[in-house]
Amino acid sequence: MHRAPAAHNTEGVKIPVSVLDLCPIIQGGDAAGAFRCTLDLARHAERLGFKRYWIAEHHNMPGIASAATSVVIGHVAGGTSTIRVGSGGIMLPNHSPLVIAEQFGTLEALYPGRIDLGLGRAPGTDPLTARALRSDSVRRADTFPDDVVELLSYFRGGSGAPVTAVPGAGLNVPVWLLGSSLFSAELAAELGLPFSFASHFAPDDLMEALARYRAHFRPSALHPAPHAMPAISVFAADTDREAARLFTSLQQAFVNLRRGTRGHLRPPVDSMDGLWTPAEAAGLERALKYAIVGSKETVLRRLAAFIEQTRADELIVSAQIFDHGARLRSFEILAEARDALPDI
Question: Which of 15, 32, 119, 290 is most buried by its number of CB atoms within 10 A?
Fold first, then answer.
């Protein structure tokens, strides 16, 4: 199968690594504290040389504070200087394309050259909450390709357009498609857009999605070559054992989500024994198969293997770590591992 040229094939360049933040609300904490930690982590990521800092849209999730995603992006962009800030992603079925063009046009006008717009087609919540959002999520998911094209048209603008996004028209806001299945991979290829796959929680179709995206990619004016950015979780610490302990906060969150008992992010435990059933443990092992958990040496080894396996042009990393200091340290270790990777 012919492979389109990859965006990263430049000698002497390190693979870019970015950050995906769900603004976790920890047990005993609140949203205000989550936002303070988000901004602190974004500044930390900027100092460490991470490329992007993306915020995810979720609703009716007690442990996630980033429901008003565009507002949080403005908070982060206003408190940083150079790192790109964006959505990972905006769930377009919940919104009018015009409103999103105006919101991200406003962000781009305020923070020029630093705003990304990642789009997903899921509602990012349960059906009851989707209705409360005034979102016919099933119908809007069916019209997602048309909504993306409409949104792109608002950024292009034009003197003859009957509706203009102000601000928005004529501004360069990079649009990405996000997905956890083959659908968005095919659409991103058709529209000539960069693509990020949610392999941090839905790994099954990762390799097939990347293969289809690259094989079917149609070069566009802004993107002459495909650009694929898989998402993974990385929990790094000074030892493998401590990293495994930090990881139990995410494992508990996944168990509770699947049981329908969502809550705040819980502190880590020494062992998950007694906190999940064998079936739940097996399900999480599959869902989190690409999670990288360990010391710098372990992280470096597994990062290199994942990059080679996926031929990723960029990585975006999530880390739902309970203790903020440990989370900062995890990204420090990740940056050290990133810098130790061979040039691409």
Answer: 119
Residue 229: HSE in the Cβ half-sphere, 13 Å Cα cutoff: 25
Q: DSSP strand E in 221-264: where? A: 228-236
Task: Please list the residues that pair with 232 across neighbouring strands.
Answer: 317
Using alpha carbons only, what angle is made at residue 294 by residues 199 and 244, rounded to the nearest 5 degrees?
85
Please state, in angstroms and rounded to a whole number, the distance separating the CA atoms of residues 141 and 186: 15
Read off the pLDDT of residues 8-51 as tens digits, 9 standing for 90 and up: 333 457 899 999 999 999 999 999 999 999 999 999 999 999 99
Q: How many residues does the chain have?
A: 344
Q: Give backbone dihedrals phi and psi of 76, rounded to 5 degrees, phi first.
A: -70, -45
pLDDT > 50? residue 4: no
Catalogue the E-assigned strands of the chain.
Answer: 17-21, 52-55, 84-91, 115-120, 175-179, 195-197, 228-236, 292-294, 315-318
User: Quick check: 128 and 176 in contact, CB under 8 A?
Assistant: no
pTM of the entire structure?
Answer: 0.93
What tokens does 127 get?
Answer: 């059906």
Separation CA 321–CA 332 (nearest Å): 14
